[in-house]
Amino acid sequence: MRSASLTLFCALMLGCGDVAGAGKGGPVAEGEGAGPDSADPGSGSDGEGGAGGPLVAPAGLRVLFYRGEGGFSPRSSGEGSFGALGAQLWERFGYSSDETDVWPDDLAPYRLINLLAPGHRDPSARFSAEQVAALQAVMATGTRVVLWGERSACRTEAAQALIDALEVDLAFTGEAADTNRVVDATAFGDHPVAEGVALVRFREPCYVQGGAGQVLVLDTAERPFGAWARPGRGGELMLIGDFQAVDDSGALGTEGADNLRFGENLALVALP
């Protein structure tokens, strides 16, 4: 299903391509075997950042949920914890997961790095130059980085400074959906993350800046709260306005919603 109005929105504001509608794990995995989605990386165009040539798929088999640099601390409600998704990723794909506020010594094993609202607990927090360089290095080898928003801290200096250091044209606006508003998103950008996804439930998502990057997901008023950009031929940086879509606070089990598939797709890092 495609939306004419959504396509017009993208043409005017986001410059995105086609917009589609429905579009803790087990033991630590050793080695660098390719994941199930990395057999054919496909090919990209010179216009999508970096030199021409094939896009790079990640070989790592682990997923990181990182809450350091003042990121969101988990609550007893399950908000900010990712055990259910981690278990699913291990059972289906053999991907191990780490939830931590300690920066790993080596990011190379991670195919997906989730940054959970950095700056939420500490407005003065910043990623170091060494951390930025480590992220740039693994992104160049295909790792996807998702910077998640949280309503009470939609635009933090920690998050925006990191985006700027990664030299990606993305930003949160600082605004969010109304308090306690549930957004059942049915409009998604033309991206593999939306494959097999018809509806994803979010709560009070932070909005992202229109006209920057490529659209990932929009609310019913066609305001984007998810976007992505690929700085080279490797992995993308994604901004998504609400991590409760994939945490243990309840949305994963919503009847009729595809939140679990959405979380799986993020970790698969399938290439367009």
Short account of what is shown:
The chain is of the alpha/beta class. Helices cover 19% and strands 21% of the residues.
Describe the 3D structure.
This protein is an alpha/beta fold. Helices cover 19% and strands 21% of the residues. It has helices at 4-14, 83-93, 129-140, 157-165, 259-268, and strands at 19-20, 62-66, 96-100, 110-116, 144-148, 172-176, 182-185, 187-189, 200-203, 206-208, 214-218, 224-229, 237-240. The longest helix is centred in the middle third of the chain and has 12 residues, at 129-140.
Number of helices: 5
**Would you tell me the overall average pLDDT?**
85
Strand sequence of the main sheet, in spatial order? Answer: 1-8-11-12-13-5-4-2-3
Helices and strands, in order, run as: HEEHEEHEHEEEEEEEEH
| Percent of residues in helices | 10-25%
Q: What is the general shape?
A: globular
DSSP, total strands: 13
Backbone CA Rg: 17 Å
Give the end-to-end Cα distance, rounded to a whole number of Å: 19 Å
User: How large a portion of the residues is in β-strands, by DSSP E?
Assistant: 15-25%
Largest sheet at a glance? 9 strands, mixed
Unreliable residue stretches? 1-50
What is the structural class? alpha/beta
